[in-house]
Amino acid sequence: MAFSVTLGLLLLTLGFAVDLQELETKISGPKEDLLRGLLWPSAWPLRSEHLQRMDESEDQEFYGQARLVTHIDDAAIGALRRYYEVHFHAGAAVLDLCSSWISHFPAVRLARAVGIGMNADELARNEQLTEWTVKDLNKDPTLNFEDETFDFVVNAVSVDYLVHPLEIFKEMLRVLKPGGMAIMGFSNRFFGTKAIKLWLEISELQRCQVVSWYFHFAGFRQIRAKEITAKGGRDPMYVVEGVKAPISDEL
């Protein structure tokens, strides 16, 4: 398995004085606890070059044509939907970031389901949303909602495209209610020219670790990474989640 020198140097600066194959072994724990044994970096570890992309052209041009397709197979979609079902509850308010024509939500009666995406045609076809807006989060990472608006913030197979992840995750934390949860689901399927450089250079398990950094440095608690790949499915499926501290913890 080949990894870049860039990532190797990055890991060494964080105190991982091990080769990358050894690191891979260390984070290959139980599927329910992929972050076991790893320590948080003392400071935000990513630099601007890690967040660059091969294609830095306008995202609006790239996503301007509607793509009414699913980017992961039915087994992976089912795994993500079942994972949402475990956590979602009737009457919840959910924000779907980088949304499209389908949100993979379970059959739970939500009070509010808001989508933010890049293509109006796709979002207009999403029958799971109660409202939506077109916005390029790579240009403006702010979320135009009041504090403590949502019970859940989710993102399906698009966290790898965020070039301002820390800013967006801080906004996610702000708009979540105390005790609210954010769930980032991803696979190994993506547009390579639009994914951040670091994502292309690391393994699937290390991607879980990078997303956990986003959560940690934004201020989330109870950060976990899990593999939820469905048996017989072609596409792997991972989730990394974090919780906003309940009011009792903030006092």
UniProtKB/TrEMBL annotation:
GO molecular function: S-adenosylmethionine-dependent methyltransferase activity
InterPro entries named in the record: Methyltransf_11, SAM-dependent_MTases_sf
Keywords: Signal
Name of the protein: Methyltransf_11 domain-containing protein
Domain Methyltransferase type residue range list: 120-183
Pfam families reported in the protein's UniProt record: Methyltransf_11 (PF08241)
Signal peptide: 1-17
Top-level taxon: Eukaryota
